[in-house]
Design goal:
260 residues, single chain, alpha/beta, globular, seven-stranded parallel beta sheet, 8 helices
Amino acid sequence: MKLKDRKAIVTGAAKGMGAAITTTLARAGADLVMAARDLDALEEVAEEVRGMGRAAHCLSVDVTDEDQVRAMVATARDVFDGRIDILVNVAGVTGPIETPVQDIAVADFDYVITANVRGTFLPIKHVMPVMIARKYGKIVNIGGTSGLRGYPMRTAYSASKWAVRGITRTVALEAGRHNINVNAVCPGIVETPRMQKLCEEKARVRGWTREQVYDEYVEDMALKRVTTPQDIANAVLFMASDDSRNMTGQEVAVDGGWDV
């Protein structure tokens, strides 16, 4: 159990990658504070975690709201007797799909940047003092391969994921002297309902079938297979454990070879 008795916060923990990450950390021995907007879905994941014998505390949190994030961290600190060993920032949004830059509404651009960038920054800001006090911490941000290369028709989303890389590298430099590792896992296309929505919207705009869009993604991957939520969770577990003790400021792509 690589995370035996570690104390973790996972944002966006209710569905898809977030749920897989949450249960994987629990299976490795971590107790969890789980944050998301959908409490009903969150409770379903929490029951699975509790079935493993681990603690699961569910909170409804908007990660773009500083007061709510501050309260989330305070709750975690209280229930974990002053410890927060791991923070995984999963919460985020997709934004405009298959939309050229000139057609993106300013409000839509701002929404994506706020959710994905501020929503990564605020949990780090409020967890950092707890980790510094204990001289230990693992922060794992969920970036994206669209933050490793250009991604046509996805300006807002790509910009937000490039920003997550900047946060990851800069905070890693600040936190290293406190024995805190800060890394990012960068998924490509992941087999979730969000991917289905992406394929459907691209198909609608192009006049294609959903299957044609899906097959195009697969063809672009070296391994010719789509990433699963568990693939992402496995990489997060590595970054959250002491197996990655001498890695910081890094981005690990888990994308089937899309970014090769």
